[in-house]
Design goal:
alpha+beta; four-stranded antiparallel sheet; 42% helix
Amino acid sequence: MHPQIYWMMEQRFGNNSLDIETLREFCKREGEAVIYHKGDQLEREGDPARWFAYVESGSFKYVTHGISDDREHITWFSFEGEFVADYPTYLYGRPARTSIVAMMPSRVLRVTGEQMEQYFDQNNETMKLRAIVAEHILDQHRARYIDFHRTTARERYDMLMQRCPGIVGHLDLQDIASFLNVHPNTISKIRRDITFESRKK
C-alpha cells in the first residue's frame, strides 16, 4: 500500500492521525442528534451549507454532478466515528459544492457553522485546532490528486480495498467506479482478474 493513500478513513474503516477527541466532545456537548434515512441529504449541492456533524453510526457519500452530462460523481465518504461536512463552506453559509447523502440509516450529532465559528474563535488553542483541521483536509485531497496521476485503476482499487475492506458492503459497483473515476466495466474486469488470481493460488 502506498504511504500516501488518499482515502484516510478513520476508526471503523481505518486509522487517522488527526486527534479528533476535542471536536467529538464538542459535538456531543453542543450538537443536535439527528437520524438520516438512506438517501436523505445532510447538504444539497448549490444550497447554503450549514452543518458540521460527528457520525455516531452509518455512513455518507459526497456527490457532485457533471457539468455537461449531469452524471453523479462520488468524491468522498464519511463513516462511523468520522466527521461529515462540506468544508469550509459550512462555516460561512456558502453554496455547498457537493450533496452529502446518507448511504444507510445514520445518526449524527450536528452543529451549525455559526457554532463552529464561535468555538474556533474562543482562544489560541481552538484557533490552532482550526488550522490543523484545514491542513489535514488539504493534505488528504492533495494526496488523492497526486495518486490519481500515478496509480492505475487496479492499484487504486486495491488500495481502497486494503484501507477500507468494509466499504464493499455499502456501495454498489457504480459508486465504487465513480469514486475511483473509472468506468463500471473496469471495476467488473478488476474483480474478475482478482477472482482468477485467487483461484490460481
